[in-house]
Amino acid sequence: MDLDTIYDAVLDGDAGATTAAVEAALAAGETAQAILNEACIPAMDEVGALFEEGEKFVPEMLISARAMAAAMVILRPLLIEAGVENVGRVVLGTVHGDLHDIGKNLVGMMLEGAGFEVIDLGTDVPPQKFVDAVVEYQPHIVGMSALLTTTTKSMPATLNALTEAGVRDQVKVIIGGAPITDDFAVKIGADGFAADAGSAARAARALMGLS
Fold this sequence. Notes:
Elements: H1 2-12, H2 15-27, H3 32-52, H4 58-81, E1 88-94, H5 102-113, E2 116-120, H6 127-137, E3 141-145, H7 154-164, E4 172-176, H8 182-188, E5 192-194, H9 197-207
Parallel strand pairs: 1-2, 1-3, 3-4, 4-5
Helix pairs in contact: 1-2, 1-3, 1-4, 2-4, 3-4, 3-9, 4-5, 5-9, 6-7
């Protein structure tokens, strides 16, 4: 079955096989939406679960995410043409003072794999840039990452900036990164915390009311 082949190719991180299987499925009459929802997203969910269980590691997550990205190169134009909406929009960035991006990039890939549109603001993102992005893109979720203990203070500063701009109640905020804890998220008033990329995608879906 074509969808099973796509699922396995994404799970294995084989971008070439994923591309071939997606093209074969489309040729056989499968819709882009079915391929996304019944093969690609479940495969990335499984990748995230295996990572959390210690069965997969960051390099393996990255190659699966790249296989998913290869599928999306083909599927995205078809989904747009069919008027299929993303499950939500996320503005993502590493906070001011922090230049680390590997974790953030992996979170972005996992979110795309979970059906989200991701607007990546990059690294060293000042609070005002997050505010401007919320105003411009009207996301459902803002995701902030920090790898350095010294830059975690930029997270409450950004939340305060969103509040002062009058847009805090328009978005859910998820934070993550090596020094971040659930207690810290609660303390600063974030809506969610993710310890890793797989749980970030699941937390985002939960905040959207999705399973």
